[in-house]
Design a protein that fits this description.
This protein is an alpha/beta fold. It has helices at 14-24, 43-50, 66-79, 122-132, 167-190; strands at residues 3-9, 30-37, 55-57, 84-87, 104-108, 136-143, 153-160, 194-197, 200-203. The protein is built from 5 helices and 9 strands; from the N terminus they run βαβαβαββαββαββ. Strands 3-2-1-4-5-6-7 form a 7-stranded mixed β-sheet, with helices on both faces. It has a two-stranded antiparallel ribbon with strand order 8-9. The mean pLDDT is 97.
Length: 204
Amino acid sequence: MPIRLAVLLSGSGTTLQNLIDKQAQQELDVEIICVIGSRPDAYGLERARKHGIPECALCRRDYDTGQAYSEAIWREIRAHQADLVALAGFMLLLEVPPDYKDRIMNVHPALIPAFCGHKMYGHHVHQAVLDYGARISGATVHFVDEMYDHGPIILQDSVPVLQEDTADTLAERVQALERKLYPQAIQLFAEGRLCVEGRKVRIL
């Protein structure tokens, strides 16, 4: 049986669309059972509607504390009985409840632990890589804990940084890598092949 996947996003939903496409191509044993946006105008919610996926927007400003906001998110996820949660450009830090430890994934556009952490997202990451003079970059899929880009690493792969690169051209190659790695990691979870041992993830 496919696992039940909840997707959290804040923007255009290109990662969500990639997962929808992989599911349609029968490369991903998931049922996307809900999409939650942190902004009502996030285009990813429109993508969900087009594919008949239940969606809703939960805005941080509507809650007094980060804890109250996290609790609202988890109420929605539990109502849909999600097996796994995929962060897909979700820009807010969530509290991780015990029942979802090692059941939340994120993809980051660099090789963690380099070029990661608070405010390191999107083109900020790629520009930082270029400014530092790094010769390689890449993508990392990891389990989520209560720190930015900190949980155990599931998969990583690299791309070269070329002398003529801009943040845009580097982003294109990294995003292509993300589109490959994220579904692979989710499929490994669906097959029950990921075993977390401290900070290490063993692939069975």
